[in-house]
Amino acid sequence: MQRMEAILSPVARSHGGVSLPHLKHTAELETQVMPPPETVTLAMQQHIGVPCEPLVKAGDAVFVGTKIADSPKRICAPVHSSVSGTVTGFREVLLPSGQSCNAVVIASDGKMTPDPDLHPVTVETEDDLVAAARECGLVGLGGAGFPTHVKLSRAPGVKLDTLVINAAECEPYLTADYRECLEHADDIREGVYLLKQLMGFEKVILGIEDNKPKAFEVLRSIATDPRDVKNEVHLMRLPSSYPQGAEKIIIYSATGRRLPLGRLPADVGCVVMNVTTLSTLARYLRTGMPLVARRLTVDGPGVARPANLLVPLGASCSDVLDFCGGLTEDATELFWGGPMMGLSIADLTAPVLKQNNGIVALTGAYPAPSACIRCGRCAAACPMQLTPAAIEAAMQNPSVEQLQALYTNYCIECGSCSFVCPAKRPLTQTMRLAKSHLRRNPDNA
Ligand code: SF4
Ligand code: SF4
Q1: Are residues 266 and 224 in the same domain?
Q2: Structurally, how many domains does the chain consist of?
Q3: Of residues 18, 2, 7, the one with CA closest to residue 419
Q4: Could you report the per-residue pLDDT of 293-328, keeping only the tens digit for each?
Q5: Rounded to the nearest 5 degrees, what angle is found at the Cα of 284, between the Cα atoms of 229 and 43?
Q6: Which residue out of 395, 416, 425 has the highest number of ligand 2 atoms within 8 Å of its CB and is therefore the one to mutate?
Q7: Which of 329, 363, 397 is the last residue of a domain?
Q8: Mean pLDDT over residues 319-345, rounded?
Q9: Which ligand number lies closest to the CA of residue 390?
Q10: pLDDT of 236-277, one tens digit each?
Q11: Which of 97, 27, 21, 35 is nearest to 299 (CA)?
Q12: Is the separation of the CB atoms in 138 and 280 below 8 Å?
C-alpha cells in the first residue's frame, strides 16, 4: 500500500531570480526516435575534464554501444559508438564552448546493431555503482556534462547524506527532462531506490517546479513508493523562478546549504543528479547499453516542426534540424540549450554531445544596447548576489583585484541580469569575458 506523502517546501529561498515565460510548447509531444544519419562524429570531449583518446582506427567495424574512446585519467567519461558501421577517420570539431577537439567519424550501416558483448549490469556495492556509471560513459545530462562517476565518488571520510534529484528544467522551451518523467517513470524509480540503498543516503529530495503538474504526480508516486519504509524519500515543490534548476540554487533550496566557490556538492554532503541522468544509469544497468543517444527538445519560433527527439550522439545539428523540417526563413539565432544559458551554434556541422539537451532557434533581432541607467535591476535579479553593472564597469579597464573583489567567479552565467536589463546591456557575455580574464591571469590560482 502506498503511504501518504507530505509535499515539502524549499527550506531556503535564493536571492533574485526572474520569472520567465513558460513557453513549453513541446511538453505534450511524445519523443520520436530520429533515424541514424549517414555518419556520426563523436567528439573526444563530451564532458568536463580530460579528453578521451580514440581506441579505434579507420576501417574498424563497430556496433551500437562499442567503446571507441577512453582515458586513464579520473575526470573523463568513455565514449561509445551511437551507430553500427565502420570508422572512416578523424576530424576536428568545434565545441559549444568555442574550443575544438578531435572526433571519431563513423559511417552508419543503417542497421543499428547492438554490440553483442553488452549485457545487463549487476551492482551490489557503492563501488560497483560508481564503476558502472563510468562504464556507461555517463555525464550530467542537464547541461553540465560533469562525469557522473566522479560525482558519485566520495573522498575518504566524507559523509554524503542527501541525494537531490533535479527535475526543475527551468529554461524556456526545454522539455527533455519533463518527457523523461512522463515516459520513463520506472527507470527514475529504480534509480532513486538503488542509489539510496547502495550509497546510504539518509534523505532523497525529488525537486520539481510547481508549473509541471503531470511530472509532479509521477515524482509523487515515486516518493510514496512502498520501498521507502523509513519515509526518507520526499517530493519538494519548487517555485517556478529561474534559475531554480542551477546546482547551487537547488542545493540551497533543498537543504539550506551554500556551496562554496570551487567546491563540489559532496563537500556539503550532497549529490545532485539531473533526473534524466539518474534514469539513464538505471537503464544502463537493466540493458547494458551505455549512453549512445539522448533526448533533445528542438523548438523556438525559428524551427519549422518542433519536436522532442531521441538523437544518436554525434548526429550533426543540421541532421537534427532537417528532421524537424529545417529553420524558418526568419530564424536569426540558434542555441545548444535554452535561450538563457544556451551557447550559440556557430557551425551547423557541429555534433550533438552528451550534455546537449536542446536546440532552440529564435527569430527577430536583439535590440541594440543603450547606456546603463543605474537602475540596479541586474543586481536585484542575480541569484548569486553579484553586481553585474559594477563588473561591467570594471571590465572597461580590467584588474584582477577589482574583479575578485566583486566576486566575479561566483557568476553561474544564468543570464538573469541580461534578461532584466532595460538598457539591453550584454551583461552575461561580459561576465563570461570577466571570468575568462581571471582564468587567464596566472595570479588567479
Ligand atoms: S549571469 Fe552571473 S551576474 Fe548575471 S545574474 Fe546570472 S549569476 Fe548573476
Ligand atoms: S539592469 Fe542594466 S541599466 Fe540597470 S543597472 Fe544593470 S546594467 Fe545598468
Answers
A1: yes
A2: 3
A3: 18
A4: 999 999 999 999 999 999 999 999 999 999 999 999
A5: 135
A6: 425
A7: 363
A8: 96
A9: 2
A10: 999 999 999 999 999 999 999 999 888 889 999 999 999 999
A11: 27
A12: yes
